[in-house]
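Dissemination and training. As part of the outreach component of the grant, students in the summer workshop were shown how a complex can be specified as a set of sequence lines and then modelled as a single object. The example used during the hands-on session is reproduced here so that future cohorts can follow it. Participants entered these lines:
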Amino acid sequence: MPLDPAPLDAVLARIDASLDPALDRLMAFLRIPSISTDPAFNADVDRAADWLVAELQSLGAEASKRPTPGHPMVVGHLGEGKPHLLFYGHYDVQPVDPLNLWHRDPFDPAIEDTDKGRVIRARGAADDKGQLMTFLEACRAIIAEQGALPCRVTFFFEGEEESGSPSLIPYLHAHGDELRADLALICDTGLYDHDTPSIATQLRGLLAEEVTITAANKDLHSGSFGGIAINPIRVLTRALAAMHDDTGRVTLDEFYDDVPELPDAQRGQWQALAFDHAGFLGDVGLSLPAGEQDRTPLEMIWSRPTAEVNGIWGGYTGDGFKTVLPSKASAKVSFRLVGQQDPDKIHAAFVKHIESFLPPDCTAAFPMGRGAGASVMSIDNPAFEQARRALSAEWPRPAVFAGCGGSIPVAGHFQSILGMDVILAGWGKDDDQIHSPNEKYDLRSFHKGIRSWARVLDALAKA
Amino acid sequence: MPLDPAPLDAVLARIDASLDPALDRLMAFLRIPSISTDPAFNADVDRAADWLVAELQSLGAEASKRPTPGHPMVVGHLGEGKPHLLFYGHYDVQPVDPLNLWHRDPFDPAIEDTDKGRVIRARGAADDKGQLMTFLEACRAIIAEQGALPCRVTFFFEGEEESGSPSLIPYLHAHGDELRADLALICDTGLYDHDTPSIATQLRGLLAEEVTITAANKDLHSGSFGGIAINPIRVLTRALAAMHDDTGRVTLDEFYDDVPELPDAQRGQWQALAFDHAGFLGDVGLSLPAGEQDRTPLEMIWSRPTAEVNGIWGGYTGDGFKTVLPSKASAKVSFRLVGQQDPDKIHAAFVKHIESFLPPDCTAAFPMGRGAGASVMSIDNPAFEQARRALSAEWPRPAVFAGCGGSIPVAGHFQSILGMDVILAGWGKDDDQIHSPNEKYDLRSFHKGIRSWARVLDALAKA
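and obtained this result:
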């Protein structure tokens, strides 16, 4: 039951006319501090799931919260007809620290005027509540205008995305029959640039691990023990420092074995994008690409693997000074994976690397070790080109098939476990400060994002 | 007016008989959380100074709190006759974190039975309230028995020792005439071992600095920026890791230029001590001396300089995982100095070392840079041998002249600014966990420490 051009225009007009109530709904969603990584917020995560269930029910969907060993999934079904689409988003958000760097309460959202336009300021505004809501609001406008969606949609919302999605794979295996559709849509990525939408067809994987080095069985005083007792911070810094060579290359054994070279066609396409790395870095106060020095900036963020220390701590870190030799030192380390890099193999190489720096008096613990490999989408499915054209009609410049430096492991799981193609489209921007203080989502992203999904649904249902 | 042998015995007997009220006074002192490094405790630091003033007045001393730009000094005068002694201790204590590793409230002191004997458990029990009180209680017993001290004593108590003593040098310059005496006594060091008292004649200096590396102007998401944006943790770990070579030697430029070799006589004396480094390290769960591999364990802690990272932090350090590329990474670094090593010169070498690792997009800040050089006492003054004999009479084994790995900068300042010789004696033990959770002071240290000072005062006044 495809929409014809006139109804699409009516839907778009309705979206324009009803932006305020749409924003009110998003604000209510953003007020729920659904931080999935911190057990102190467990009740809030649950409340966000309930809120989504009610939201889906208000669209007429059959929807419910589905328990997992961790935070619940939210699943809903609405509409009839081909293609059957599975829409994914996540309702959990990142932690907010350091809180003092926020210029307002992260869970008291507001519309702010900035020199780059109006933005919605709140934790989760861009990642992923604002994005998720662009799809729901598109559905709401279509239903209001047409009485029904043009095709069958299954909604699937996760509450553990920022916690490494521990329940996702078992859930997909157990409930594949309910979730499997003709095509998956994921709204958790960004525009290529302010005027150019992007469908991400190449996503890096992610392996995250924490390492704790333990030396003495208690903190020691460096006056008594300094010089004779091994300092675990020294061991940790030596091991972490040696993860990269002077050219920015990762030194773990066989790290690059399963990293493919970029196909020439892809390289040409990316070169044509004329990526402004100086502007990209300049926005955050940097100037020089810091990755492998023989790679282009776009390769560094889209197609090359990385090793990064995301957090490090040990010893006395408060005000003043304490001449302690700590018992322990820890770091959180993550690897962005590409091509056929196997998270388990990279994890083993990381453990071996750290252990090679351990003196006999030290031990190392690795409590996490979760990861997912990279995803590459085949764009043979004509839905990709249909979606690309639909997006090109909404935005000033034509949509591109692009890489994505971030990791959306669920895309790979939809491919491998459910056997579905996945279209990743989203309206985030590089300056949204997701995972950072003062996260925002452009009002324009929210508005044109809703319009974009209305166009995509229209295009896919018509095909 | 020296005590003759019979009165000394009477004083010692009185000390034995009145240990309980002495302990009560110490407990009251320990209940005051006088953490000088944390402004939240400023009122408590002040309260500890008031407590000491009252304590000195209860001995009959003229005593008062003396303002400084930071925490106050406490100065008191008592007694007459030669020699005029200046006694120094500090009434401030280290911070208590990590608080969860304490098995009791650090400021709710208690006597505990342990498998190594009875201990006084509290922050400051050993460093330095318990030690300071051994001297005051010796004075109290002498006065109770004799009516007066055998010589003139000036008391000088500091409240900023754990904060790097920012007011000390100006205060000594301004009030040298009041404080200058024939000899200084400092009680802030330890026994050589359980049965062997020690007079510390060689103390390492200390230079403390904090370094913060700043890269991007905000925290970044490693999905968007990982691989292209420089990570300040990578810069910091590389710079810190390179501070030592593979043999444990510090790599800063000219670091060892002003480090003297141990005189043969000293080396022989130290070898005679047959230091049990396996036991020393075994007590804290270690086995291998981790300093310069061509040095003996006793040299590592007494006569060789060190570079240690006492704290490191950056990025996300909470529960779970956050794939952030932080804007900043920081470390607290300290150097134990020996011989003629100049804190300013070492500081400059440290800054140069860190800066040599800075890529163009990063900056480094060094906010502190305070230090004091090492101290070496000349033991030609006969008071040293008088004190050594007095201590030998109290403890199972004869007292030794020893090195000290810790830094007692005030000793050097008494030498250089006031022109005084300094006797450092104290009753702490290596397992006292000063600066760590569950700090304790042996009840035996407290008791025999009081007796030791009574003997030393007797010996010095008789000479």
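The mean pLDDT of chain A is 94. Students were then asked to discuss how this feature might be tested experimentally.
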